[in-house]
Design goal:
The protein has 175 residues and is an alpha+beta fold. The protein has 5 helices and 8 strands; from the N terminus they run H-H-H-E-E-E-E-E-H-E-E-E-H. A 6-stranded mixed β-sheet has the order 2-1-5-6-7-8. A two-stranded antiparallel sheet has the order 3-4. The longest helix has 16 residues.
């Protein structure tokens, strides 16, 4: 972990170069709390309709409207319209599977690339990983969490960072 490398180098009297200390993504506790809130709202609405929020650089949160149920395996929500391009968007992918699809927060949907262009950081919350079934045909449990993306993506872009909801809770408990 980067912080451990920096601490170890510091104790040994060695400086850590910028190249070895680069951080993949930076965020705030406000953003992490709102990511958990968007995930919670999705679960509370039954898990099939997307939720969204925008967090402005000053920490102001603008919540979006609950999306419609998926149609032909595509879920839809609309991010709130907010001025500026330094905001963080957070939206969910459904946390439940349907008869013809499952959703993975680490995979951008077909409408995500256009929606992400207007924000500095974009977070998708939901289940991490593709749905899978065991030999008996039962769903295998997947962790919930957040996938962090930059501004310019395609539907094939991998997240910069993924965190489970449990990891986010631990981060928020640390001071």
């Amino acid at each position: 972990m980067i912080i451990n490398r920096i601490r170890g180098n510091d104790k040994a009297g060695i400086s850590t170069s910028k190249e070895k200390a680069d951080i993949a993504v930076t965020t705030t506790k406000t953003v992490l709390k709102e990511a958990l809130d968007v995930l919670g709202r999705t679960k509370d609405n039954g898990g099939l309709r997307e939720e969204s929020s925008i967090v402005k650089p000053n920490g102001e949160i603008i919540k979006g409207k609950t999306g419609e149920e998926p149609i032909n395996g595509i879920a839809r929500s609309t991010l709130p319209k907010v001025e500026g391009d330094d905001n963080t968007s957070i939206h969910s992918h459904p946390t439940e599977t349907t008869d013809n699809t499952g959703f993975n927060a680490a995979k951008p949907g077909p409408r995500d690339p256009d929606a992400f262009k207007g924000n500095k950081t974009n977070i998708i919350v939901g289940k991490l990983g593709d749905p899978q079934v065991d030999a008996a045909g039962n769903d295998i449990a997947r962790s919930s969490g957040a996938a962090f993306f930059g501004r310019i993506i395609t539907t094939e872009t991998k997240p910069i960072v993924k965190m489970t909801d449990h990891t986010i809770v631990k981060i928020l408990k640390n001071k």
